[in-house]
Amino acid sequence: MLLSLPSRRRFSDLSEPEVLALAISSEEDDARIYATYAEQLRDAYPATATMFDEMSSEEDGHRQLLIDSFRRRFGKVIPLIRREHVAGYYSRRPIWLVQNLGLARIRSEAARMEDDAAEFYVRAAQASSDPSTRKLLGDLAAAERKHEHRAASLKDEALSDGAGDEEDDKAKRQFILTWVQPGLAGLMDGSVSTLAPIFATAFATQSTSTTFTVALAASVGAGISMGFTEAAHDDGVISGRGSPLKRGLASGMMTAIGGLGHALPYLIPEFWTATALAGVVVFVELWAIAWIQNRYMETPFVRAALQIVVGGALVLAAGILIGGS
């Protein structure tokens, strides 16, 4: 029977050459991450791409200094040791988890990368009992802190002359086109269009279980329909509205949420209690729509509230009148 050996080593068990080799591989990985960010952002955000190009060059420079130091002290053969080989070492998120989350998220991830590296070297230096190793780790921490400050200055230089504000505005506009606008359309459709069938069923049957069944079907069906419609009618290439999958998810989910909001109260067995609570939920939904329009679409709040509340009230009244007749 084979014994199961630990797949990763503890940092405290690494020799000084291995610590230096780990730093070399880490610097190489970070340089490649920054270069990838730069390439992905170059067309849409050239100023930020320039910033990441320079940060990648900085990491390459650090790596070369570490290699020179290793060769002077330990020879030409550098051990192969990477982050994933060491338990407790700081990690990097897979780049595909970050690249689609927007410009601000990528910038904040870069700042986290530098801070993680510096903090880890500081803690490792404090825990080390070997003077030479402690000095090595302290030097690495100082280098990362210097790079962190350099990254800030590179950002100031690369994003000067209003380029940063322009890119931030562009990123905000893309976020609104891809997520907010389809989501808002879905929330409006789910909240308003389902009012008539739900309340017509409620007042026609005065059965909470029947009303909930109809409301659930209407909400889920509307969500699926809106999601597919949003994704299929525009691939985003010409309009610049972004990924059809993202827009479809935003529209479909918010449509279903809008309908389910005033469907859930009908899980309460008592009809008038459920109906009163559903009416309160409808009021909250309509005001939420007005707030989103004001916050992201820059629609004056009073005008947005008047449009949404009046429209919703008319649909709600139609449902009640039809159901009660």
Detailed description of the structure:
This protein is mostly helical and 325 residues long. The chain has two domains: 9-160, Ferritin, CATH 1.20.1260; 173-324, no CATH class. The chain is 75% helix and 1% strand. The protein has helices at 16-41, 46-74, 103-127, 131-158, 163-193, 195-205, 208-233, 244-261, 271-296, 301-324, and strands at 9-10, 86-87. It has a two-stranded parallel ribbon with strand order 1-2. Helix 6 runs antiparallel to helix 7 (208-233).
Write the layout of secondary structure elements.
Elements: E1 9-10, H1 16-41, H2 46-74, E2 86-87, H3 103-127, H4 131-158, H5 163-193, H6 195-205, H7 208-233, H8 244-261, H9 271-296, H10 301-324
Parallel strand pairs: 1-2
Helix pairs in contact: 1-2, 1-3, 1-4, 2-4, 3-4, 5-7, 5-8, 5-9, 5-10, 6-7, 6-10, 7-8, 9-10
What keywords describe this structure?
10 helices; 325 residues; 2 domains; mainly alpha; elongated; Ferritin
The overall pLDDT, averaged over residues, is 79
Instruction: State the secondary-structure class.
Output: mainly alpha
CATH topology of the largest domain: Ferritin
Please state the oligomeric state of the protein chains shown: single chain
The largest beta-sheet arranges its strands as 1-2
Task: Give a short overview.
Helices cover 75% and strands 1% of the residues. By secondary structure, it is mainly alpha-helical.
